[in-house]
Amino acid sequence: MRLSYFPALVLLLLLPLFLTACDGDQEAPSIARPVMVVQPMQAAVRMSAYAGEVRARQESPLAFRVGGKVSKRLVDSGDQVKAGQPLAELETHDFLLQQDAREAQLAAASASFKQVRTERERYLRLLQQKLISPSQFETADNQYKSAEARFKQAQADLELSRNQLEYAVLRAPVAGVITAQQVEVGQVVSPGQPLFRLAADGEREVLFALPEQRIKDVRIGQPAMVELWSQPGMPFGGRIRELSATADPLSRTYAVRVALDAIAPAPPLGQSVQVWLEVNEGQVPSLSVPLSAVSADAGSPYVWVLDRKQSRVKRRAVNIGSYDEREVTILEGLQADEWVVTNGVQMLIDGQPVRALDRSGRELSTPPLGVRQ
């Protein structure tokens, strides 16, 4: 019979312990936990580096304005060309035949026009002498106007034919370098088909690919530093001139063009470069804390801030910027004179008493009343 009372006695003895444990989940423990604290530091300027390539500011494809069979290719990729220099030619036999036909048409139209003009002048004199009726003169005048229109059309056709003969020679519009050629002798090309790519002499710029996660760090007009891989330690300045509105569908990167400052001599086309951009450029100076001081709850970052008067910690949400393996930039939510916990943050709860230690292991003293902390 005595054994039957034993389980009930055990439960009665353990009940206060269970109640104490439950109360501990709602209130901060009274035991001060030792923690290491630091004050935020002014965040250093952070730079991001990207690989790029030197390009010409003006680079355009070149094509014939008329179609035909290529008879000559006069330049190759990498050739330096002058403005107006021939690059390729088409066979001109058909263009010459067309020009001969248009010249013959013009000669016939000119002869007919002269004859009708003479006839109109005669009819005009007869009308003035009242030897013919006005309707007869009107007929001669209409024939004159028709002949004049045919003559002008023949002149325009001949001019067009001469232009097409001239278009059979593809010339460089400006001085520069041929960066690509896509034509061979004997190839039949159509009007507007790109055959060469010409990089104009003059201004140079840098093209690089920007990952989509960094798009927020870049803006038009932002300063940049550029360094040629062939000339390390000799950077020169530039500014972002163009930022693509859409990402490349394959690489998921944005094309960015940096206009280079005036430098002499101009960097060679195709040179590999490294582009340096300041992260969070133009923003208010921010603070940084050790990476271990920042925790996250459901994707929302927070830190534990020390209340030195009460020797307790309080959880505070912060807005973070860039980070690396050691530090995190704090954009909002923290003051420079506050102290944050760096070690043991996973074991803390809001309002918990702590014993704050600095980096050297010395305990922080409680500030006097009236001092803002």
TrEMBL record:
Its main location: other. InterPro entries: Beta-barrel_RND_2, MdtA-like_BSH, MdtA-like_C, MdtA-like_HH, RND_pump_MFP. The keyword Coiled coil applies. GO terms for molecular function: efflux transmembrane transporter activity. Residues 208-261 form the CusB-like beta-barrel domain. Belongs to the membrane fusion protein (MFP) (TC 8.A.1) family. Residues 101-168 form the Multidrug resistance protein MdtA-like alpha-helical hairpin domain. Pfam families: Beta-barrel_RND_2, BSH_RND, HH_MFP_RND, RND-MFP_C. It is found in: Cell envelope. Residues 1-21 form the signal peptide. Residues 65-196 form the Multidrug resistance protein MdtA-like barrel-sandwich hybrid domain. Keywords: Coiled coil, Signal, Transport. Residues 289-346 form the Multidrug resistance protein MdtA-like C-terminal permuted SH3 domain. Residues 137-164 form a coiled coil. GO terms for cellular component: efflux pump complex. This is Efflux transporter periplasmic adaptor subunit.
